[in-house]
Amino acid sequence: MDKFPNRNIYKILIAFVLIIALLATSTLVIYNDSSKVFSVVAVDSTGEKKFIKWVEFKACYEAMEKALTLDVKSHNKEIQLNWVELLAYLGTRYGGDFKKYKSKDMDELVAKLNKGQTIQQLTENMKYYNYYYEAYDAILGNFVGEYEIQVKDQDNNGDLKWEKKYGLKVFSPIARGYSFSHYDDFGTGRSFGYARKHLGNDLMGSIGTPVMAVESGIVEAMGWNMYGGWRIGIRSFDQKRYYYYAHLRKDKPFHSDLYEGKVVKAGEVIGYLGMTGYSTRENVNNITTPHLHFGMQIIFDESQKECVNELWINVYEIVNLLQKNRSAVVKDEETRDYYRVYDIMEQNSGYDF
Question: Which domains can be identified in the chain, with CATH numbers?
Fold first, then answer.
């Protein structure tokens, strides 16, 4: 028996009050009962720019891996499946809660698409599909595409040659051959400096492990931070994603070729895992366990870059997916730096590498 028979009325009243309170700030709060969360999107009541103000990413590895595989296998076929569209459709259906994910749900969607129905037709009555698509596309939109990568030429003494590919063109933040462990620690409490939530995923590993650029982009930040220690911030070319790599190694945290403003490639060595941070003094090991703090900030408008309402997403399942693509490295004994073994060229990146 329901102990709270009037709770639906309470939900309606709460949603109504929030809507009224936020209309003055040009923001509409949508209560999504299936996910038990409030989703925030901008509305144009005062002529201000419209952009997403809140997003929560809960797509599971199983759904992402299957959507990715379907996308890659359908490349250059009559019907090209788009993995972001598949995930956005299911995200809308589940109210963002991928604990409800079932493989057959994606199979049914793909069957309809392969029979000629379009994603626009299938989502025309799904009120929040555009919101989920824009959010998921900001997170995953540049992960898949055409690129060229060096591979060993088995017919030419193992020399390197360029090979065109389509698929995952982002890399794990940890180099190939180096072990690490992690668990879903997004949102857990932190107390150094002030009480706050953990806005990333800690990858436990060995000091000196090469840290890789997940996606190609531009180095926006590089140096010391009392919370993150030696850290690097890299912005994607489309400006939508800001990758944060923190607690790098004492004394030699960065690759010697790295500098603010540099254009880096996905899978390139940018620094080395360590345990610096939690100190007002620079270059101090004050973290108890060596690890890489890896975070991703989503930016729909530049006003969100550094503000109290920054949008950091849970990257735990993304890190699991990125293990499908890890960049091999080799050490230069003279410089003591590590370099990638296989270079990459991206199509239509807008930058000459």
Answer: 61-144 (no CATH), 189-346 (2.70.70.10)
